[in-house]
Here is the input.
Amino acid sequence: MSSIRLFILDSLARHGAMHGHQLRLQAEEEHVQLWTDITVGSLYGAIKRLATEGLIEEVRVEREGNFPERQVYAITSVGTTSLARLRQEHLTELAFKPDPFDLAITRLDPNTLHELPAVIAARMATFWDRLVETRRLNERALPYLSLTEELAMRHREHRLRSEISWLEELTRQMTEIIADETARLVDADHPANQSAALRQR
Here is the structure.
């Protein structure tokens, strides 16, 4: 489920009325795009949807200098009720999506099996880069985080390390994987197996 509704409603309940740009700055400061399913660019659209649903309401319009007018929103009583429900849902519902990579690794192209080690190595390098960047951002943010915020940020580190560990296991078995895929290809091309497949249709 998307967390953007929880983020907006909680921010307004916690910090008071805010306009979209303030919410965007808060999201960028917390680097939510790195450890949640929120994209900063989707905030404005979500604000409009929440206002249409009556979960937040415009309380005033502000203008600073030459900047355009900005609508300032506050959470409504309906929004407060929705926030309580969202908090409970996000704490109790399990979000664990299948990785498309898992399907792809079971549907390898026999003509490009020799490229598989490089593909896995590149994928692992990407995860290492993300882990290093996540650690850097976490350390920089650490002085400003509550204990729960720190643990939430560390959660991403644990998930990245787990992915790297699994890719290392995949790398250790690379010779066996390629041999197994090649053997399956030979078996599929055998005339007896082709005849059996035709009889089953």
Remarks:
- The longest helix spans residues 116-141.
